[in-house]
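COMPLEX REQUEST
Ligand: protoporphyrin IX containing FE
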Amino acid sequence: MTEISTDDASSVAGRSPNRLRRFLTSYVFSTDHKVIGIQFLFSSLIWLGIGGLLALAVRWQLAWPWSNMPLFGNALFADNGGQISPEFYNTLFTMHATIMIFFVVIPILSGAFGNYLIPLMIGAEDMAFPTLNMVSYWFMWPAFVCVIAMLMVPGYGASSGWTSYPPLSVLEGATSTETAQTLWVMALLFVGISSMMGAINYLTTIIQMRAPGMTMFRMPMTVWAMFVTALMQAFALPVLTSALLMQLSDQIFQTGFFLPENASANNMASASGGGQVLLWQHLFWFYSHPAVYIMILPAMGMVSDMLACFSRKPLFGYKPMVFSILSIASLGFIVWGHHMFISGMSRMLAVSFMVSTMLIALPSGIKVFNWIGTMWGGRLHLTTPMLFSVGFVSMFIIGGLSGIVMAAPPVDIVIHDTYYIVAHLHYVLFGSSILGVFGAIYFWFPKMFGRMMSDGLGKIHFFLTFIFLNGTFFPMHFLGRMPRRLADPYVYDSLKDLMPLNQFMTICAFCMGATQLIFVGNFFFSMFFGKRAEENPWRSNTLEWTATSPPPHGNFLTQPVVSRGPYEYSHPDRESDFWPQTDRV
Amino acid sequence: MSRLWSLLFYCVPVLATVTFLMAINGVWPFAACQMPPSLSTAGETIDGLFNGIHVLAVMILLGTGGTIGYVLWRFDHRRNPEGKAKYFSHNSALEFVWTLIPAIILVFLAFYQMNAWSENKMVRPTTMVSGIETQTPPMVLVKAKQFGWEFHYAGADGVVETADDLYVEGLLVVPRGQDVVLQLESRDVIHSFFVPELRLKQDVVPGMRQFVWFNANETAEVDILCTELCGWGHYKMKARLRIVEPAEFETYMEGLEATYEPPLASATKQPTSMSVADAGVTRD
Ligand code: HEM
Ligand SMILES: [Cu+2]
Ligand SMILES: [Cu+2]
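STATUS: Structure written out below.
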């Protein structure tokens, strides 16, 4: 306060640059992990909106192919008579997936919640390397710029899928979006660098900066999950980075890492060749299978904490939970071949990948049982974050089970690259990860912004999202004969009868999109006019709830000292049903 | 309120089960959604696995999803206004059981379906050639390209990639009741050869030579679909597969030979060399 008044007293000329500088250092180029976390949160949420609109355009085409899209059609595709062109359809789903995976789910989990929660939950004043942390966020921006720059090159975006398989993504003449393809590779390189810096920071922070008494086995599941996620990123990202550099070099310098001898497309022979087409797939999936766990482990951690808190009960099987995420992480590095059963990879090798994939389902199953065990015998408070957490578990069961179905190679022969896979990945990524993220936003919003989000609106948001999400994605399980990525499935007579079902799913998808407006409204309204939050509105045990809401720069007024694990809810010797980790007695 | 939420979560396993049962029994409106009937015995084995694993999955879903619905109603805090939650953090016996049983199921599944995989993808059918058992040679060389399918029949010498190959675009005719081996190659990018009725799918990779096989037990005419994104025209990269009686197949081939005019040399030009990746299938 006093500072501001001296500022006011200073000369008019000196005043505005000062304020600008203060604004810049505290909100834009801040090294405070909380501000960086919130920056990640905002940019990811904006991209979530954009990615969602792209998805709706994809759904529109699948339900009413080649018809003029409402509202946007004439403006966007004027030269096409308001229609989506087949090439642009490919761009739509490519950019949808790219944005959702690399700009939304990974950064919102690790970037936003990892940043915000790790130091607070382990009782540290900030990350180990605050400047590196800031740089890690700002490395997302060149990636954003690459994607926005795609709008200025032919095709308006990459169009060879989020998997970017060569030769399609490399060969001249194979697509008309070559420049966008190169921008795509560059965008991913920047995201990778950003994640790598984050991962190193999280690992160091968790190993080095824990408050006195905070042993590894007193850390909340959220922190464990962030720790294991960072480990996976640190091991998997170098492989993606080198693969991307190889693809970049194939595109720009005409090397032929991923091109066969005599490669050609569209009557244009390529000068390069002699490489291996499947090599890219191996390298890509060596990163991207671990990446699917990078996209869910942090959500699993946060959901574990929310479930324990709202069941007012210790987390069931804390150590088995820790060991299952550790085994998911290690097994996660030897299952990538399950994306390649049909790819032309050695068919013998498929069998060993099948066995490891079956094994990885086991720790996932154990986690589900432990979550149910956590709720069993509890005293449940069905608040909005709790509902989203239970929704997470319920949807993850379906996604995990369809994972087992696809893990059987003979069955995968039929459903590979069809809508069945689309069903699976949306149950795990939307049904689980995004529901978990919504839950986490409702849960930690009071800490972040010092105000509560409306619980009533939150429940309506949950209810409608849950219904429409199942309406959109469940029927996809029945489309095992409809290939994915078709701009117009109905050119095949055998798929014509699937149109009504596709229209039903599209209507559900549009309703789901509209439902998110409730969330947006609730978010911004609560930020300014919500009920003021106390320090610990959910009566939770973990350290972040002992700081003020929102915590100041440096987090804790006094150094927290940890006396017990994070899940001492409803201890029989205590009157109150929770027991903060820092309480001396 | 807790009733509502509990009901909502009960709906998940119940509706999933109901729609699944409707789909496998062909009940409206999910009748359209099941796989078309299989035209081969190998395909029926796959269907058996598909349905079997799904039945298992549905049972697990009913168990776990049902428990979630029950828990939300039974343990709501309003049903227990004064008391406290139970204080326990593990149960070794229970955990042992719920680790062991799924582990057994998964290992069983892993071994149970290996045969189907090797039958479909690893053990190529054989024929007797002058008393020696040899791998059945490919009847047709399938060439995928942006955006269509070429079918090169072996011709009189019974060997593909020779001068007397007969080349047809967009239509594959094969005899019923015989082992048919196809050799798959690509002219440009990756494509994928998918015939739902035969439960047959294989990516077609440039620079690689791959083999697939089937034995159709009924005559039919069905779609061949491309299931790997291959460019702007991916969606319309289709062809037809016609399965006919062996006699009719003979007539068809004779007719083809009689009226055959070799297309422009460029269209049938073979790649001059194949990369090491050739081994793709033979090394199995
Ligand atoms: C129980 C554990 C799981 C198993 C056994 C499993 C198995 C599989 C298999 C076999 C495939 C390949 C299907 C195909 O292309 O033919 C697949 C695809 C996929 N899975 Fe999973 N999965 C599991 C969990 C997850 C989780 C937790 C996530 C993400 C959060 C995930 C995300 C994906 C995605 C995105 C794809 C599709 C990739 C693509 O082709 O675009 N899966 N899964
Ligand atoms: Cu995977
Ligand atoms: Cu295609």
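REMARKS: The pocket of copper (II) ion (ligand 3) is lined by residues B 191, 226, 228, 230, 234, 237 (CB under 6 Å). The helical segments of chain B are 2-24, 41-74, 92-112, 114-122, 246-259, 265-268, 279-282.
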